[in-house]
Amino acid sequence: MKMWYQQSEEEVLQSLHVTKDGHTSESAAEMLGSKGPNILEGGKKKSTLEIFLSQFADLLVIILIIAAIVSMMTGNSESTIVIVAVIILNAILGTVQHKKAEKSLDSLKSLSSPTAKVIREGQKVEIDSKDVVPGDILVLEAGDLVVADGRVLNSYSLQVNESSLTGESTSVDKSESVIQNEVPLADRTNMVYSSSLVTYGRAVVVVTATGMDTEIGKIASLMNATKEKKTPLQVSLDQFSSKLAVVIMIICAIVFALSIYRKMPILDSLMFAVALAVAAIPEALSSIVTIVQAMGTQKMAKEHAIIKELKAVESLGCVSVICSDKTGTLTQNKMTVQEVYIDQNVITPDKIDIKNQLHRYLLYDAILTNDSTIVDGKGIGDPTEYALVEMARNIGLPDEVIREMMPRLEEIPFDSDRKLMTTKYNLHGVPTLLTKGAVDVLLDRTTRIRTSEGIRKLTEEDKTKILDQNFKFSENGLRVLAFAYREAEEKEALSLESEDNYIFLGLISMIDPPRTESKEAVSDAKRAGIKPIMITGDHKITATAIAKQIGIYVDGDYAVTGSELDAMSDEELDEKISKISVYARVSPENKIRIVDAWQRKGNVVSMTGDGVNDAPALKKADIGVAMGITGTEVSKDAASMILTDDNFATIIKAVANGRNVYRNIKNAIQFLLSGNMAGILSVLYTSLMALPVPFQPVHLLFINLLTDSLPAIAIGMEPAEKDLLAEKPRDPKEGILTKKFMSDILLQGGLIAVVTMIAFHMGLSQGGSALASTMAFATLTAARLFHGFNCRSKHSIIRLGFSGNWYSLGAFAAGMLMLNLVLSVTVLKRLFLVAPLTAAQLGMIYLLAFIPTVIIQIIKIIREH
């Protein structure tokens, strides 16, 4: 069967069972019922129950469940209730955070729902894009978003930007002509595709496919089928959890065996093992990690970066390569006039004088040979054309006033073969042809030049000067248009033959300028050990010029085109990739290959994109970054992060935030594990020395959940230090449990265990096992609360100060208040199995608890000096 683009207008309409009058209301409703709404389906979402149940699929949680069962078997109902409450609380917290992240994305998706103009029963009506069906007759005009795939029936100089699908930034001319042979999508000039933008002209189109049947729908299906990768932190935490679980089970088995060997009753031996399991498991860990990541996402959202998945926050901290699109991300996505060549001089636009007739004629040409306009500050039409309109407005020559004074008489629209646009107006009562176009084409049709001294013949020297200036503009990445005019004969009809014998007026150069913050952001990225790369569909010269301005491209770097990249073998690319800073005229396959090549070298890659064609590369990258303003739904679905301001500088802020989130999570883990290590060492010591159990499971749960959680969250709120971006990206393969990390945990946990056991022995000698257990519990709790200050940073508290993180002081005060309530309130004393204490014993507890922090701070001060 012939493809749509190979069929004639009659064949297409016949196949779709419609006429040029479009559907009737009944046939449209019937078609909507059979084909479904014109929307893209996302991947299958998990239900709330599925999300909730998935929170229990963790080894540490399973061990806690076993501990709860053992507690129940031994008749210790308080411990059982507390453990179960902890497990459920963690699951609820994880579920709530997951749903919150989903909700923020859904609200972003529903920001705008485009409408479409269709002909139904011979009348033009406006409907929601989701109600468009195959066979609808679409009316397209400049500025419209194409909402479905369709075959062009009538084209009136239609130009469409299909960059969202093909990656090609220039607009494509469309016609109604039948294409006989099979051609790739980019060459189907009689078809328009969903998500593309009409930049010029108008057309009547019959819809051939909607929703998931469109070209972007096919890509969306591929995206939905792709599995997500785990982040470096997830991998680290998974490895950490499994190792910790194995160690806990081995130690519990040893303690259980020792207890049985010492002739302890089986249930008491089990309680000893349970106490150890509860001491070892950082119950609050998953909650702390979730909370710290959630805080990070909220901070990023305020800075214009929406994180779709909490776990993606810390991955940003590992990023070592950022592949960024040029247009709109590094640049302003707004063509702006830079310089004007007139009267054989280069001037800036603000130097144009409307009282000077030569200057005024150039402005007339720029405004009148132009179909664009600016409405409410937004350009409608071709970006190059509304840049000219904006220039005229800035000078004080409003386009709407000029156009009202001088109505257009005739026109020959721009086309890509002629590379010219010509209009006819009455200028000061004289019929005049105004033309703009490509420099070389217009110059060949020009015989005279206008200067401040009048009109004279165009010499070879003049031509050389104009071409030299054009080359200089182009070399700096500027897009250049030439302008010329001539007076017409009284009754001369405008035709292609009329475009000749012109008087040259001047050149206007334009560029999409870099964002003001891009240069600093690129500098920050390089300081952070991150390689910024520009990947664009634009020309190599333009891309390189912009990359030089903002510091991405420096002397010694390479710029390559997509075709040059295709010619390279993988080995050649691996060899050169570290020196390639700019990729121009790239295809979607090129983008995936670039990401893949950097990943082969062990880098964590972030890729930005806004088009459907970017989606596979966004999915392939470790951190896919979609544009919130210009991005398509497919690119947003494929990405891990969405920029609501489409700004490169926001990515660097997000990277700094990601690094800080990871550092805070690691510090919180160090705090939890070093405290738990103290509990493990204490239980092991008493077990080996045949002493009574130093803690009841309820003591350890009180420490791990109430007095530990708040300091751990406070550590997670620690603001970023100034030198954070001066560090190199961390190695994603490096787990959390490094040698230094483990040695710090052993040292700090050992110090806390020593003072805890001193308090335990004091209690044994002064009042038996109940007092010993109470003193050990109180000392361990207070020591861990003091230890919260040690874990805020690698720096000493003298260098950090307290004012940088008031949360840590609040957490310490709240923890101390809870401990003192448990030690003094009768009901709580009974619930937490606490013996009465004298003032002297209480003073000794706090003195012992403070000693480890003093020693750790002295070590930090010595290290700093």
Keywords:
865 residues, nine-stranded mixed sheet, eight-stranded mixed sheet, 32 helices, 50% helix
Class from secondary-structure proportions: alpha+beta
Largest sheet: 9 strands, mixed
Over all CA atoms, what is the radius of gyration? 35 Å
Q: Give the distance, in angstroms, between the N- and C-terminal Cα atoms.
A: 80 Å
Number of helices: 32
Q: How much of the residues is beta strand, in percent? A: 15-25%
Percent helix, as a range, is 40-55%
Q: What would you call the shape?
A: elongated
Strands, count = 26
Runs with pLDDT <50, length 5+? 107-113
Mean pLDDT reading: 85
Describe the structure.
There is one protein chain. 50% of the residues lie in helices and 17% in strands. It has 865 residues and is of the alpha+beta class. It contains 32 helices and 26 strands. Strands 10, 11, 14, 15, 16, 17, 18, 19 and 20 form a nine-stranded mixed beta sheet that branches. An eight-stranded mixed beta sheet has the order 8-26-25-24-9-21-23-22, with helices on both faces. Strands 1, 2, 3, 4, 5, 6 and 7 form a seven-stranded antiparallel beta sheet that branches.
